[in-house]
Specification:
Elements (H helix, E strand, L loop, with lengths): L6 H4 L2 H12 L11 H6 L6 H12 L6 H8 L6 H5 L6 H15 L4 H13 L3 H13 L6 H4 L18 E5 L5 H4 L1 H13 L2 E4 L9 H5 L3 H20 L6 E3 L2 H7 L2 H4 L7 H10 E3 H7 L1 H8 L8 E4 L3 H6 L5 H8 L3 E2 L15 H4 L1 H15 L6 E4 L2 H7 L7 E3 H10 L1
Parallel strand pairs: 1-2, 1-3, 3-4, 5-6, 5-7, 7-8
Helix pairs in contact: 2-7, 4-7, 5-7, 12-25
């Protein structure tokens, strides 16, 4: 695709990235076939090819409009288009640049600005989120059903092993997961303890920054990335930990982007790139430990029931991890049922289910129909957002797959 970027962005770092991405796109349209919003709405402007064209126009100097902003907002950033694209277009990075330029010049309505501001200042801050969650649980009985259904009951984490092994990984603590589903990280700690590996949360580390990044509060997200790098780096540099293990695939995909986020930072660029290389989704680490895990599972031959696995977009399209979780669960005795249209998003997508509720609900209904088509006893996933989104309407339990693996190893 030929480009002629406007002076305001041509010679900037973002402009150079955007120009390179745009030049890869041949407008073949293969991406529209796997775009969830295009499938729902049937509008070219709500598909990747149409959004790329709109971003190109803005970067070439066409004044952005509220309509363009809404078309970009309706994108889930699921990255299914990247998986489909034969030309290797890095659509997600282009979308971030386009959204940033549009938002800088198109004011949002006051109510919308307030909602996005609140989400960016509550969800990433664990203490604030914990307080808000407690209040919501106390008032759940008087809230409308549409809101009450989004508030999960408190969950017990279960026993957590002491950090006692020579082999160590930093574990990303995150923001909402420890409060919503503490059993996930506890299960991961127990599984790795059996493998002779200790998982520990680094003091000072927290939210990965994804929520703020996708709400176009990019500098706040970069500041959060720097804090995490500062918390992790001394032990990484000293060789005291093997890397950063992350149990939420959405967070893993974001930490793997730290090198891109901070590429122009003279102080953090090198460390950010190294941290990104050492960040791993829990499935990737267990795949590398498959021999040790196999030895533990040899004594666990009991069939454990049918499970439908929902592969989050961040796992299959962002991290390009496919089939790994399914093999681990099958080896642990679970029967994996087929899932129709497994490449499509469930509609969670970070804050998307709160900001684009109607589209998110439609995607969730479609996904739950596909997941339950073959009557599984449980649904498993790999991301906290997908889990909490899907369980609001599922007629079977929805859990993180590491909890199922921990269950198999314990019984």
């Amino acid at each position: 695709m030929q480009t002629n970027l406007a002076d305001f962005i041509r010679d900037t770092p973002a402009g150079r990235v955007a120009d390179a991405i745009l030049r890869k796109c041949v407008h073949c349209g293969f991406c529209t076939a796997t775009c969830p919003t295009y499938q729902l709405l049937g509008d070219e402007l709500d598909g990747p090819r149409g959004r790329i064209y709109q971003i190109k126009e803005v970067l070439e100097g066409v004044p952005p409009t509220r309509a363009i902003q809404q078309h970009l907002d309706r994108c889930l950033t699921c990255r299914a288009c990247e998986t489909t694209c034969p030309s290797g277009v890095e659509y997600a990075h282009l979308l971030d640049i386009g959204r940033h330029e549009v938002d800088a010049r198109v004011p949002r309505p006051l109510a919308e600005r307030a909602k996005r501001w609140a989400l960016a200042r509550v969800l990433p801050e664990r203490k604030r989120f914990a307080a808000a969650l407690r209040l919501a649980r106390m008032g759940k009985g008087v809230l409308p059903d549409s809101l009450a259904g989004k508030i999960p009951a408190p969950q017990e984490a279960g026993p957590r092993p002491a950090a006692q092994h020579a082999r160590r990984w930093w574990r990303l603590e995150g923001c909402v997961q420890p409060e919503l589903k503490p059993a996930i990280d506890a299960a991961a700690e127990r599984v790795f303890d059996r493998l002779g590996i200790s998982l520990e949360a680094a003091p000072g580390a927290g939210c990965c920054g994804a929520i703020e990044w996708h709400l176009d509060e990019q500098e706040r997200a970069r500041a959060r990335a720097r804090r995490n790098i500062d918390a992790w780096w001394p032990a990484i540099e000293a060789g005291e930990v093997e890397g950063i293990l992350i149990t939420a695939s959405g967070c893993a995909a974001q930490v793997r982007d730290y090198g891109f986020w901070l590429a122009e930072d003279p102080v953090y660029a090198d460390r950010a790139a190294q941290v990104a290389q050492r960040a791993r989704d829990v499935s990737e680490v267990l795949a590398a430990e498959s021999a040790s895990l196999e030895a533990l599972l040899l004594a666990q031959p009991t069939p454990r029931g049918a499970v439908a696995f929902h592969a989050p977009c961040s796992l299959q399209h962002g991290l390009k991890v496919r089939g790994v979780v399914e093999r681990l669960l099958a080896r642990a005795g679970y029967t994996l049922v087929p899932v129709r249209d497994a490449h499509l998003c469930c509609g969670s997508a970070g804050t998307y289910s709160l900001l684009q509720a109607e589209l998110a609900e439609a995607l969730k209904r479609n996904k739950l129909a596909a997941l339950t088509e073959h009557a599984p006893a449980r649904i498993a996933s790999a991301n906290i957002g997908c889990i909490t989104h899907l369980e609001q309407g599922a007629n079977v339990p929805v859990q993180h797959w590491i909890e199922l693996l921990d269950e198999a190893l314990r019984t």
